[in-house]
């Protein structure tokens, strides 16, 4: 079953890197969608799965709207929404 992980990021590049590295230790998702609230272009680690950054230039932290933007960008039916400060376990 292919899945897409969706996360929101607003200036938390170190947290994002750890989330992505954690995803790389388990069953790989088809993709990871990173909704960049307010924009962020911090470099990402080399990964064995694609990461798509979705710009979301809004003020504040509009979580529901940002998650919906991530959903619209996904191309699989199975979605996993993770907060950017979560490090997924190998069994996710």
Please describe what this structure looks like.
The radius of gyration is 12 Å and the shape is globular. With 92 residues, the chain is α/β, with parallel strands linked by helices. The chain contains 2 helices and 4 strands, in the order βαββαβ. β1, α1 (13-23) and β2 form a beta-alpha-beta unit. It has a 4-stranded parallel beta sheet, sandwiched between helices.
Cα-based radius of gyration, to the nearest Å: 12 Å
Q: Would you count the extended β strands for me?
A: 4
Average pLDDT for all residues:
93
Widest sheet: strand order? Answer: 3-2-1-4
Briefly note the structural class of the backbone: alpha/beta
Report the sheet-strand fraction: 25-35%
The sequence of SSEs as H and E is EHEEHE
Outline the biggest β-sheet: 4 strands, parallel
Shape type: globular
Helix content: 10-25%
> Count of helices?
2
Distance N to C terminus: 13 Å
Q: Which spans of ≥5 residues are poorly predicted at pLDDT below 50?
A: none
Short description:
The protein is 24% helix and 26% strand. The model has no long low-confidence stretch (mean pLDDT 93).
Q: Which keywords apply here?
A:
four-stranded parallel beta sheet; 4 strands; 2 helices
Give the topology, please.
Layout (H helix, E strand, L loop, with lengths): L2 E7 L3 H11 L7 E7 L13 E6 L6 H11 L4 E4 L11
């Amino acid at each position: 079953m292919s899945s897409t992980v969706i996360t929101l990021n607003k200036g938390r590049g170190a947290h994002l890197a750890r989330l992505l590295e954690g995803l790389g230790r388990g069953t790989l998702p088809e993709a990871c969608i990173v909704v960049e609230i307010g924009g962020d272009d911090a470099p990402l680690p080399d990964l064995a799965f694609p990461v798509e950054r979705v710009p979301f230039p809004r003020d504040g932290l509009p979580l529901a709207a940002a998650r919906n933007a991530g959903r619209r960008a996904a191309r699989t039916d199975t979605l996993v929404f993770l907060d950017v400060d979560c490090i997924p376990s190998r069994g996710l």
